[in-house]
Amino acid sequence: MLLILAGAYWLRRRPWPGRILIGTGAALIYALSMPLVANALMGTVEPAPLADAALADSDAIVCLGGGKRFGAYDEPGGEAINNATLVRLRYCARLARKSGLPVLVSGGAPLGGVAEARLMAASLHDDFGVTARWVEAASDDTRDNATLSARILLPRHRRITLVSQAWHLPRATQAYRDAGFTVHPAGTDYANREPFSLLSLLPRSSALHASSVALREITGQVWYNIRRS
Prior knowledge:
Elements: H1 2-10, H2 15-32, H3 35-45, H4 52-56, E1 60-64, E2 68-69, E3 80-81, H5 83-99, E4 103-106, H6 116-128, E5 134-136, H7 142-153, E6 159-165, H8 169-178, E7 182-188, H9 205-228
Helix pairs in contact: 1-2, 3-9, 5-6, 7-8, 8-9
């Protein structure tokens, strides 16, 4: 969009550069809206699925919060975990039942209200029959998740299975490794790998959103590496 706006600004002064900018911006929007491109971008940030051996090598499971809803009028207090967090909890509960490992849920309240981790612990218990041993409810972002989880778990529980959306895990994994953990990424909610067809070349709003998520995570990884250097 910025390229298109810049091209529109230059169109009267310098027609050809203006047209090139507008055409480039429109082409990029179209490309990023194609499922074929979105899936390829997602594939660059999503790790391989968790192996049984990795789960067996862990001392604990850490489930990261993915946000909450303030307008949950069907819930007491009007707040509830959002769909992204619910997907993570579902996978976390399955891994906990399978392995018997203790669970830490992590997520604060950067926008106010009830901390995500407290809502997560309640859902994990009430909806999935799993009790979280630790509740980390003060973090504001992924790096905070890692730092505050380390204060709770280290040094006894150093090897962890880390649960989040697959696209979020490369950045989250790096943050937890920097905090002193040995991390086994446990991704869920992988991007839809539909087979190639002419429909995969047509623009979709969902594909544009997936491209946006992938580019944000790639940018986040670059920023993490810059801060670490």
